[in-house]
Amino acid sequence: MNYIDLFAGAGGLSEGFKKAGFQPIAHIEMDLACCFTLKTRLAYYYLKENNKSPEYILYLKGEINRDQLYSLIPSYIFKSVINMPISDQNNPQIFQILDRLKGRKDIDVIIGGPPCQAYSLVGRARDQNGMKGDPRNYLYVQYGRFLKQYKPKIFIFENVKGLLSAGGGQYFKNIKMYFRSLGYQVEPIEVNARNFGILQNRERLIIIGWQKELNISIGKLTTDSKSIYKVQSIFEDLPKLSAGEGKDKYTCYIKDRNNYLKLSKIRDNTKVLTQHVARPHTQHDQEVYRIAVQKWKENHQRLRYGELPERLKTHHNQKAFLDRFKVVADDLPYSQTIVAHIAKDGHYYIHPDINQNRSISVREAARLQSFPDDYYFEGVREGSNRTAAFMQVGNAVPPLLIEKIAEMLKGYIRS
User: Fold this and answer.
1) Does the residue 151 lie in any domain?
2) Could you give the number of structural domains in the chain?
3) Beta-ladder partners of 276
4) Can you tell me the distance from the alpha carbon of 328 to that of 392, in angstroms, rounded to the nearest whole number?
5) What digits encode the pLDDT tens for the residues 88-107?
6) Which terminus in the chain has less CB density within 10 A, N or C?
7) Quick count: other Cβ atoms within 10 Å of Cβ 241?
8) Which residues, in sequence order, are CB contacts of 315 under 8 Å at separation 6+?
């Protein structure tokens, strides 16, 4: 069973399908840093599947560099990462590359999550035109070009729930009609990551399309398996950091893995921890963070911006986004949604330990997204990737969510 990943990003969708036993034909992504991340993950799987995992560990430890890691991998592996924007101008070239990669194989699944800012409720609220006229509104047409070209048995189109209401619901109606015109039954399912064993409150829309003869039962894809664990599970084995501290490569854990990390497959038996790096903070921000953590710990109340002492207020707007400082509460069963804004600042993701007094690290954010600890997020240049890593983590789909959906779809493809 194979798949093509469109708008691949850092590979959250792909990781879920790979974990479920599918094989990637190609990943298509326009962001160069994401493409390096995808290549590094392909290197991980190649070495693992050829009993050479220790060589990947050398990379995570910083004992070999990225070029040395890539030199261990046959060149054809990396040709499957296509660093191009999907567009009418580029698609003919992309199709040529894909045709060489897939040979005579039929494509079982196409997956992808086009950029969602145009459908996001927050994005529409912040844009003076409500995202009308934004070309990202029509990326589903580009997605459809690949359905028309390769006729997969199933496709997965992932996006934000706001897609259902964008344009008064007209965008979704157009998408549904368009995909049906290509020969697919189409149904949307609304999912929340917290119902799939993930410690994050993340609502998403998964549009599933399938060829009519498959007769898929959508109801089976919404199985509720809420986690019995709390957010503390992702923190307790990690070294304590102050703002600006941490190591990009090879940090040791301070405890054995707990049940949640084991069951979610976030942490395996290796002793390597990477990207547990905290961003630096100003004295002003750290003072605000202490107030936010103390308020939560003592009263289980969230800090509202207007409650800050006047000397700590730096924004004139005191009517919107009043919860701009928010603790990742470790005593709850799920965190707030991890979004790409975490690349700009950590105010919405304050670590719950007042003694550490910082926002969460790249690795902590990745764990809340259910990425395994051996997943390394690259930058364009090696060794300067904290911002790029945060951006990739925030934009990603939780692999554990997609893995469970992919597992349920396998039976339909095989039948």
Assistant:
1) yes
2) 1
3) 247
4) 19
5) 999 999 999 999 999 999 99
6) C
7) 21
8) 305, 324
Contacts of 369 (CB under 8 A, 6+ apart): 12, 198, 200, 338, 393, 396, 398, 399
Contact 241, 276 (CB under 8 A): yes
- CA gap 356, 352 in Å, rounded: 8
> In whole angstroms, what is the distance from residue 410 CA to residue 195 CA?
20
Query: 263 to each of 18, 258, 270, 339, 369, how far by Cα in Å?
Result: 17, 9, 15, 24, 15
CA–CA gap between residue 55 and residue 363 (Å, rounded): 21
H helices, E strands: number in the chain: 14, 9
Phi first, then psi, for residue 396 (nearest 5°) are -80, 160
Confidence of residue 115 (pLDDT cuts 50, 70, 90): confident
CATH number of the domain at 141, please: 3.40.50.150
- Distance, first Cα to last Cα, the chain: 12
Distance CA 410, CA 211 (A): 14
Q: Can you give the residue range of the structural domain that contains 19?
A: 2-226+398-414
What's the token pair of residue 96? 């040529």
How does residue 123 score in pLDDT terms, banded at 50, 70 and 90?
very low
Query: Which residues are catalytically annotated?
Result: 116
Q: Quote the pLDDT of residue 227.
A: 77
Residue 389, domain member (yes or no): no
pTM: 0.93
Token couple for 18: 């790979």
